[in-house]
Amino acid sequence: MESAAPTGTSLGTDAVRHVVGLVDRALPFTTVTSRASSATVWSADVLTHVRTGADPLAPWRSALLTQMEQRNAATVRPHVAAAFVLQWWCEVAATPIAYAAVLGPWLLVPSGAGLGFELAPALNPFRIVVAPERTSLEVEDDPARRLERSRAAYLALVTEVVTAYAPDVRMGSRQRWGVVDDMWDTAVRLARGAAGESVGPEPTRVSCCFIYAIPGMRECAACPRSGRGHGADRTAPN
After folding, report:
1. 17 occurs within a structural domain
2. Distance between CA 89 and CA 174 in Å, rounded?
3. Which of 62, 64, 158, 238 has the fewest CB atoms found within 10 Å of its own CB?
4. Nearest Cα to Cα of residue 96 among 155, 31, 39, 140
5. pLDDT reported for residue 232
6. For residue 107, what are the contacts with CB-CB under 8 A and spacing of at least 6?
């Protein structure tokens, strides 16, 4: 696509809404919108609680674990809910930023107060909110530079919460920061697929979602326990 403005020029709220709309149309299952609702949870509010020493994601983990056990009529290890909530937290930030960077020449940077999410009945984020008045947007014509800057924006949004994440289960640094990297890489890969690029087989992840720990479930194709690629030496949680 052709650039809508010179590199480095800050675009306005209408441009943000336009890009958010393009991202939304490229996503098959998740909605990205510029319209908040009473159900919107803002990233800045989560971070505020983290900075007071609270664990604002604990109720989400607890509810998810309870739902998993009810649906599977079995005890589910808390590692599963802990991994899924951390993945989803990162996915909320990665999705709009990565898709904007891949679908066009855009560096989309929501502030914590401008990035929110809403949960589906299954407790996964199904609606991501990007508030135009709290989001910066500019054109960055160099693709490599655009992805580099976009990833930096993503890290700025998720890192403090990831660092403080306290799921009451053992979560080593490789798992924790593997989730951060995996969610970014996955968002970029999916965005490239949506843009019509050939992306090839899904690469092995660094982190594990531990879905295999649910009775009757098996690891996913990209699981580091599969013996493929760089994640082959990962072990099950204690």
Report:
1. yes
2. 17
3. 238
4. 31
5. 36
6. 100, 101, 136, 137, 138, 139, 140, 146, 149, 150, 153
Q: In the chain, which stretches have pLDDT less than 50?
A: 1-6, 229-238
pLDDT for the residue numbered 170:
87
Q: Is residue 164 part of a domain?
A: yes
Which amino acid belongs to residue 37?
Answer: S
Residue tagged 């994640």 (tokens): 231
Amino acid letter for position 17 = R
* Residues in contact with 109: Cβ distance below 8 Å, sequence separation at least 6, in sequence order: 97, 135, 136, 137, 153
The model's pTM is: 0.90
| pLDDT tens column, 56-90 | 999 999 999 999 999 999 999 999 999 999 999 99
Give Cα separations from 93 to 42, 99, 165, 219 (angstroms): 11, 11, 16, 25
Residue 226 lies in a domain: no
For residue 133, the enclosing domain spans 13-198
Residue 46 falls inside a structural domain = yes
